[in-house]
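#data-curation
PF: Archiving a pair of folding outputs for the training set. Convention for this channel: one message per protein, sequence first, structure tokens after, nothing in between. First:
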Amino acid sequence: MSGYISVSEIQSRQETDREGFLEWNINLPSHVDQERLQIHEGRVKLIGRFAGFGGVTVSEYQGNVTTYDAPAIGGIFNDGTAAAAGTAAATEAKRERSMLQYDGPVLAQNYLWPQATVSINRAEVGSRVATHVRNGHDDQKAWAYELNASLQRGLRSAAKQNIYDKNDPTDVFGSSMTATALIVGSLPPVNTLSIFPLTIATIYWGIQYRVESLINNTSMENPPRFIDRRWSIFPSVSFNPDRYALASLVTTLPLVRHRSK
């Protein structure tokens, strides 16, 4: 698995390799050293593999910034200072947003590997970096810290959209039958209680794979291989909690860092 790679190297590679897994499309301030700002490419790819992404794009947008409403003055003390009538309220802006893009032919859903895009709110992240700097932190490290947090959250959100949030009732039912069969069947002593859910799960699997084959063969002259399927312990099409758990686990690891000289 590859390790950290500089942002400048990723951008340079994009000019010649349009099919790369990771794209970086953020215009950072000129004083940010993009040779020392690095992304752990191997971890991003691993998250993508678990989450069912065909690629990851990191981009930017100009959104709102967090605003603070000053408390009203409730009175004046004898020394002339004001007494607040309440606490200051903050309207916190989003730091990132995630989206999925499907390209190519219509395939069975478990064969779709969408492009995941994490868009960073450039205005809000820049405002937070400025706050870090005012508090005495290094500007370069502050950018790395905020970008890392946004990328972690953004990829976790995209993974949830792709393989966890859809919750088709049929998928949940099939997964529940499989999980029940595995749990009950593993309890000592081995008994016949798992036969019913296991039978239902097997029928579900068989029907699902047959439908997938029909869809893929109709859509393409050269349909995808069986190995190209987004495999999961659960037989469902859109509900893969095992893959989501693994992807979420990797997002807790550092993804962006500032390399010291």
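PF: Second:
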Amino acid sequence: MFRRAFVASLAFVSLFLMSEALAGVSQNISIAAGKSLILGGDQSGEIRFNGQNRGETTLNIAVRSADMSRSVAALAPGERFAQSLAKGEVLVIMNSSATRAGDVYWHVGSQRDKPNPRFEPAQ
């Protein structure tokens, strides 16, 4: 009897931990006119972001590291993106509109990943 209860408890805990790891972190966020949303930078290894431009203005995506920045895409309203980052890289989602806020949905694969969302002026 004890063994059966132990195995059932162990299975439940394992499923819970797996669902937590698979659930990840997601957020709908508004990016003010002339601002950039910065994601990542503190991850210890590769991290993958997926998302969608849910606003009415084009958003520009770049990947930045300590020594370089490269443009990745211009996302029209409704377009989706997927971008992997190496250790220390950040994903920059820029709203270069001078008057309109941009809306973006983003998701990162697991809660162990560190999305570390923050804003800075668009460059």
